[in-house]
Amino acid sequence: MTAQPTAVDSQLLHDVQAAAAAYQRQDFPHVVRLLQPWARRAPERVEPLPLLGMALAQLGRAAEAIAYQARATRLAPRDASAWVNLALSQESTGDAAGALQSLDRALALNDRLPAAWFNRGNVLLRLGEPAAALASYERAAPLVGPHPDLTCNQAVALQRLGRHADAAARLSRLVERQPEL
Asked: Is the pLDDT of residue 75 over 60?
């Protein structure tokens, strides 16, 4: 037997849906106005936290974003997307080690997340580890197919490894496939 949704559950769902629509419109302050009260008065509820954290990150309020995203990972430790969101905010504050740890946690939960592989590659590239970055990009590639950002990042990693011809060949194939770039 399942429990019937309460008025609180219904209102929270309504506000999360309204916040998602506001996020799509890039109205990040409205997302915060809708969800921050829920995060404060119902700290045991995970539902408002991911979107609230992403909106705060977009507003440049990284410390607050990280606090809410870390709470989301504590409340839902098996939610790989929550770990990816936390990693993005950690990386934006310069916490590359924390970001890498969060991305690795996400990938341990679900190794078919292209965003996790892609962002892991970005962090590793910034840490000066182009071979490891390239390996992460290569794991993302079959999950997303041809993608200009991925191809460009692979080319940067190859260039930093001194594999200039390989980097040029990838970029050339990209331009041939997508001449509008």
From this structure: yes
pTM, to two decimals: 0.86
b/e code 100-138 from CB counts within 10 Å (16+ = b): bebbebbbebeeebbbbbbbbbbbbbeeebbebbbebbe
Q: How many CB atoms lie within 10 A of CB 43?
A: 11
pLDDT at 178 over 90: no
The pLDDT-based confidence of 8 (bands split at 50, 70, 90) is confident
110 SS3 class: coil
Helix ranges (H only) for the chain are 7-24, 28-41, 49-58, 62-75, 80-92, 96-109, 114-126, 130-144, 148-160, 164-177
- HEC states along 17-65? HHHHHHHHCCCHHHHHHHHHHHHHHCCCCCCCHHHHHHHHHHCCCHHHH
